[in-house]
Structures are given as structure tokens and as C-alpha cells.
Amino acid sequence: MKRYLLLVLLAASCAAGAADRPTPRQPFTVVEASIADMQKALASGRITSRQLVQQYLARIAFYEDKLNAAMTVNARALEQADALDRERARGKVRGPLHGIPIAVKDNIHTTDMPTTGGALAFDGLVPPYEATLIKNLRDAGAIIIAKTIMTELANWVTTAPTLMPSNYNALKGYGMNPYDPRRDPREPNFDGRPVLLPGGSSSGIGTSANLWAANVGTETSGSLLSPANLTMLATIKPTVGRISRYGIIPLTADQDTAGPMGRTVADVAILMGVLEGAAPDPRDAATTACTPPPRRDYTRYLKRDALQGARIGIPRAFYYDAITPPGEKAARGGLPADQQAVMAGAIAILKHLGAVIVDPADIPSVVEKDESKNVLRWDTCRGYQNAKGKDANCSVVAKYGFKRDFNLWLASLGSRAPVKDLAELRNWNLAHKNAGAIKYGQSLLDVSDEMDLDADRARYEADRAKDIAIYGTNGIDAIMKSERLDAILFPAGSGAAISAKPGYPTVIVPFAMVANPPTPPFPAGFTPQPQPFGVSFAGMACSEPRLIALAYAFEQATRRRVPPAAAP
């Protein structure tokens, strides 16, 4: 392996040197280059797609041992780049990603690389069909350079008290945050994880460290927003149905969506337009939810003055300031002082840019006095503490939906499926425990498999309706309609859960660095590095165009992204 990496580095440096000699122009570098920068350089002949791939392969070779960003690197990436270069030479440009190296999460089907979800049982699995979004990427000229590391099975494996760290899986171990990739020295966490977790279940490690131009992740509740926030990236968590889920290992179809991650809002807007189909996908009924913009072009909404007159709501209760939910004695939520200061600064900038700040704009279901209707008293059923008989006061939607959709996905693999259903996977994991299959247990898989898809369907449907009512109708919808808001401003990715249940969109923008909280305390003499912290613009279904415009205007006025020092 080391010899291969050295050969990649040597080939890349030789090719770069040869490319530099004919021209005195400054050599093009992929570090912090935008997709637009790359397309301009490709169009002018300043660089080729092959050379882009070579630069990225060299960076992967140099930083992968430190960061563990990739599950698999595409062995045919250079060959595919050559083919796209030949097309460009003939005057054919497929689309906005022609010749651009993009990585995708390892739960998204590709037929030229394995798709494992990080599970040991699926090691080496090459599915019999590709995801719809992969076809869209290839049609637009993208080179799928790698599959990114991810939290195993999108973090629906286990939960407290044996929490699995974000971006850990049994196949590749721990993904390391480039903003502080050192191992956590604290005794309770001393299992190899980084001192600063990279968020999950998607990964922003490789995009943030400039190992590829951008990447595609997936989210059920926070799995795009969390890693984007903690690796200083922009992301669009789309409305469920904007992007086809066909060919993606599911958690639950009620909330699952794919989405773009990039270093800038412009990059994720470009990628969003490629990922969304021109027409509904007959293999995913949810894709009728929203109408794509003309020519699927989200870059038309990149307007620097979009915040002028925009009404932005500040959901103080819980998200900024701690509150005591009905029926409880202790306060919950709120921000520490340094994060309060960051958000105060963000709000001041929004005012300066002409936004109308509605403060407070508390979400009705958050401040609801009836605990049966309060969002803080109605969470997702998780783990053994919410097994059958202990799940009266939480939503079974995720644990029911996982069994339903995961078994359907396994069936779609036909003879290539290594296990036939969830029960067989659980037994396989137990049989291979000593090989590392379930280092942190499998309580979420266990409680999902308890569900009877026939007998428990009525409970699932009732809980799904309650999710929509509390999180959507009497939550985000209610405050946005009553205050005529263009967006709700959430600190970091804190609005992920309330948007996830009804399947609503959010766009996050890098903004600040804050302290890595010392809980539990760090050993004497160990100083943790600061962690990235973004701001999120959330809205109702199909509001991506407006959210992109607001996020872009804020980003252009602030430009706070700082590349990680661990991967210069």
C-alpha cells in the first residue's frame, strides 16, 4: 500500500511538472479551489481533468493515513478523467461537473466500487445497480473519485450507553476531523477516536481537507448538517423527495434524503442542481414533492443582496436559551456563552445586510404547555430503553421504518445480498463480534427487529402523524406562517431534528470557531483546538431556492471559512 501511495505521488508530481513547463502561468492548485475555478481552468486549457485527479490522488496519498477520509478510492478515476478530457477536446461538455472529481457516501450504490454502509457484513459488496443520483452525476460529467467514510449504517446500529462515535464503522475505524485529528486522550474516550469528532453519519473530512472538490452525503436527522458544521463546510439538506433515494442504503424513507456538501454555497448549489432529477423518478414516489427550478439551475439564486428585507426568525426558546419542558424539573437546551456571542454577531450582520430580525420567534410546539403536544417531550425511540413496552412516549417511526426499508433494500440486491434480512444481519454480527462487527453493540438494530411490520403498522402511522403535527404543522410551519418568515436561523446544526421529521430543508454556512467543550476534562497539558461552528437557515418544504439565496448573501458578506491546518 505504501509503495502504491508513493507511486501515485511520483506520477502526480511528474505530470504536474510536465504540465508547468510550456507556460509561465502560475500552476493551478486544487486547494480551496471552487468548482467554478476548476471549470474555468479546464475551459482555458490551464489544467486537464487528469491533472485534477492526479492532484487529488496525491493529496489522498499524503493525508489519508492521518485523516481516514475514504472508504474506497476509484481505481479507474484517471481512466475516466482521460475520457472526459477527450470529450472536452471534441467540444462536448456534459454539464457543470464535467471532469470534476466528486466523492459520495458509502451507502450510495456504485457498480465500479463497493457499497458497504461501513458494515463488516457488506465488506466488498458491489450492488447490481447504481443509484439514480450516481447516473445524474455521471451524466453531468462528474468523476466519482472515492467513497467517503461514514458512521456505520447511517448511525442506526447502537446508542447510549454504548454510543458509537461519529464517522466510525467496523470496516475502516475512525474518521479524523482535520481541525484536530489527534487521538482523544481522555480515559472514557480512549478508544482511538479523534479529540474533535467530525460529525456524522455523512463525512466532510475529505472535502474540507481538499481531497476532492465536493461530496454527496445523506441525512435522516442531522447527518449532513452535523458533519458540515464540524468540518467548516456548506451543505444543503434538501426537502425529502428533491433527490431520488433509489439505490441508497436506507434508514427510513420517511426522512431520508441525499444532499451536497462543499466548501462554498455556490459549490453546493451547483451540485444540488445535478443531483435533482429533471423529472420524478418512478422508483422513488417522494420525488413528486417539489418542482425543480428552470434547467435545475440553483445558481440563479446566488444573490448577494438576498437578505435585504428578508424576515429571519430567531427561535430563542431551547435553541438559544435554556427552558424547562412541561412535566420536567430541569432546564434543557441553550447555548454556552461563546456560542451565544457568535450568534449575536451573526444576527448583527444580518441586520446590517438589511434583514428584518423577528426576535423571539419561538416555535409553538417548543413552548407548548401541554406535554403531549410539546416537541421536547416527543423524541425518537432509541435503544433498549425504548424497546417494546418502554416506547409509549416516543416515536417508533425510525425503528419501524428501518426494518421495513432495510429489508426491502436487501431484497433488491437479489443473489448479491450477503444476508437476507435484518434478523440475519443481527445474527451475523453476533457471530463475528470478535472480528469487530459490533464494537459498540447493536441496540438500534435489535429494537428495530422487534417491530412487527403488520401488527405495529397502526402505531407507526399514528406516530408518523404526530411527528408531522408537532415538528411540522405546529412547529416550523406555524411560526413561519404567523411571522411571515423567509427563514429560521438556527445555531450550528441544532435545528436538524425539528426539520427532519416533516422532511424540511436547511442550508448551513461556515461562520466561526468556538471552544471544544472539555467534558470530560482533558488531561493537564493537553490543549484541544477550537471547533468550527456554522449558522443554519431553515424553512418549509421546497424552499431551497430562498434558503440558498439567504445563505449565499450571508456567506459572501462574511467569508469565514478557514481551511484546516492539518491538511494545508
Which key terms come to mind for this protein?
568 residues; alpha/beta; Amidase signature (AS) enzymes; 2 domains; eleven-stranded mixed β-sheet; two-stranded antiparallel sheet; 17 helices; 34% helix; 12% strand; disordered N terminus
Question: What would you say about this model in short?
Answer:
The chain has about 575 residues and is α/β, with parallel strands linked by helices. The chain contains 17 helices and 15 strands.
Strand and helix map with partners:
Elements (H helix, E strand, L loop, with lengths): L1 H19 L14 H10 L4 H19 L2 E4 L3 H13 L11 E5 L26 H8 L3 E6 L19 E2 L3 E2 L30 H4 L5 E6 L5 H6 L3 E4 L19 E6 L2 H11 L35 E3 L2 H4 L17 H16 L3 E3 L5 H4 L11 E2 L13 E2 L1 H16 L9 H10 L11 H7 L7 H26 L4 E5 L4 H5 L5 E9 L16 E8 L5 H15 L10
Parallel strand pairs: 2-3, 2-6, 9-10, 9-13, 11-12
Antiparallel strand pairs: 1-3, 4-5, 6-8, 7-8, 7-14, 13-15, 14-15
